[in-house]
Amino acid sequence: MRSTTVFTGAGILAVVAAGVVAACMPREYAPSGQALYNENCAACHGPGGTGDGPASGAYAEPLPDLTTLAARNDGVFPLREVMTQIDGYGRGARVGEGMPEMGHLLDGPVTRVDTGDGIMTPTPVKLLALARHVESLQR
Ligand code: HEC
Questions:
Q1: What is the reported pLDDT for 89?
Q2: pLDDT tens-place string over residues 76-107
Q3: Residue-level pLDDT at 99
Q4: Which of 56, 99, 135 to mutate to test the pocket of ligand 1 (most atoms within 8 A of CB)?
Q5: What's the rounded Cα separation, in Å, for the pair 72 and 9?
Q6: Which of 6, 19, 123, 139 is at a distance of 20 to 30 A from 89, taking alpha carbons?
Q7: Residues 120-138 pLDDT 10s
Q8: Residues 7-40: pLDDT tens digits?
Q9: How far out from the chain centre does Cα 139 lie?
Q10: How far is CA 40 from the centre of its chain?
């Protein structure tokens, strides 16, 4: 019966290990999208997203109106485009001349989200919270 004991022991160990991992994860890591926005975006895009932030004057062109993203996309909020705009992946050569890269917003826990392609893509929780806040600004 020695092998059974070993097996049971391993089983308990696995359960204990899972419990430890669960205890170490912040139960509800829910960063405030609004706070992240105010901290990282409002200086340029304005508190309401209309492009009237104090730093917007540094740009020759008016900043895009973030409250019309859905309206400009057939009424559908372009979640994936907004997230790639923030993380810089989608901008390629435009990085540097327009919006600064926001790589630090990719730190921290990751969740899975379907951005419209039916694939549950691992996505930083902070990035998603920010995009959801921008979504809440839609007119
Ligand atoms: C230093 C100024 C600045 C900051 C800070 C900034 N942006 Fe931008 N953003 C721009 C500029 C300039 C553009 C237009 C040129 C471009 O696309 O790079 C832009 C474009 C965008 C667009 C595309 C809009 C469209 O109509 O296609 C989105 C979405 C956006 N920003 C969201 C954000 C979010 C969310 C944050 C905060 C995480 C942020 N921006 C921070 C300057 C900024």
A1: 60
A2: 999 999 998 888 765 554 444 678 878 888 89
A3: 82
A4: 99
A5: 59
A6: 139
A7: 999 999 999 999 999 999 9
A8: 555 555 555 555 555 555 556 788 999 999 999 9
A9: 21
A10: 12
Report residue 121 as tokens: 């893509």
Tokens of 23: 């205890």
**Residue from 37, 69, 85, 136 to probe ligand 1 pocket by mutation (most atoms less than 8 Å from CB):** 85
Read off the tokens for 46. 């304005």
Does the CA dihedral 70-73-76-81 come out positive or negative? Answer: negative
Which residues, 6 or more positions from 29, have their beta carbon under 8 angstroms from its beta carbon?
108, 109, 125
Tell me the per-residue pLDDT of 39-65, one tens digit each, with 9 for 90 and over.
Answer: 999 999 999 999 999 999 999 889 999
Q: Which atom of ligand 1 is nearest to the CA of 134?
A: 35
Measured from the CA of 95, which atom of ligand 1 is nearest? 18
